[in-house]
Amino acid sequence: MKRGISMDKRKKGIDKYNEIFGDHLNTFTETDPDLMLILKDFIFGEVFFIGNIDDRLRELITIAVLTTNSTLPQLKAHIGAALNIEVTPIEIKEAIYQCTPFIGFPKVLNAVAISNEVFSDRGIKLPLQSQKQIEDNERFKKGVEIQFPIYGDAIKKNLEKLPEDQRECIPRFLTELCFGDFYTRSGIEIKVRELLILCVLCTLGGCETQIKSHVVGNLKVGNSRETIISAITHCLPYVGFPRMLNAINIIKDIKIQ
């Protein structure tokens, strides 16, 4: 028996696409209708209905993945889509900011510029309310307070083979920047931050060690294995099968020690 796209699935895809994007004009619908039909059937008729995560979280994941890939035209469309389904501007900005320790400042600044453009078009006043919760002299202390309960000595052990003159500064940079500067911020809860980070690592590829650590981190902050796998599955249309499957194969065998 041949499998195909049922009319019900196609209708679900079109309805979901219209729900999220509204009257957004996509020129590819006119120039490349076959590809857009495949896209809508697959992403919005199938992937969006797999797993236990809601549409708001799906859009935050998509924003983090597109920021990582620096696919800015699609990022612009999805920031607008996120606003359409009541993801807040602060949640969007925090999802983009959280990518910084993993992809660097330049790509994040490019994504921030796109978000600012969308917000300005929507009449959203900038800058948004600050989500900073700590003083500058607390970065290391507060970073450790978050890092150690989740990761213990795992990160320290992963950095043990650094050159001797970097064994102090690099772990300190990681604690201060990743955990002190970003994990301490409000706007999105730590469970969402951990899930977004895992999706960023899946998108980057070649991050097997970090994926293992962050799967444990996700489980420790309360994300279920079903939620983790749902999030990674949602990345599939944006990162492709190899990276998604590599991440899934790491996730399935990991348990909290």
Brief rundown of the structure:
This protein is mostly helical. It has helices at residues 7-21, 28-31, 33-44, 55-69, 72-84, 89-97, 100-103, 105-121, 139-151, 154-158, 169-183, 190-204, 208-221, 225-239, 241-251.
What report would you give on this structure?
With 257 residues, the chain is mainly α. Helices cover 69% and strands 0% of the residues. Helix 12 (190-204) packs across helix 14 (225-239) and helix 14 (225-239) runs antiparallel to helix 15 (241-251). The radius of gyration is 19 Å and the shape is globular. The N and C termini lie far apart (45 Å). The model has no long low-confidence stretch (mean pLDDT 93).
Name a few traits of the molecule:
mainly alpha, 69% helix, 257 residues, 15 helices
Mean pLDDT: 93
Number of H- or I-type helical stretches: 15
* Oligomerization state: single chain
Unreliable runs, pLDDT <50, ≥5 residues? none
Radius of gyration, taken over Cα atoms and rounded to an integer in Å? 19 Å
Counting DSSP E segments of at least 2 residues, the number of strands comes to: 0
Chain-wise SSE layout:
Layout: H1 7-21, H2 28-31, H3 33-44, H4 55-69, H5 72-84, H6 89-97, H7 100-103, H8 105-121, H9 139-151, H10 154-158, H11 169-183, H12 190-204, H13 208-221, H14 225-239, H15 241-251
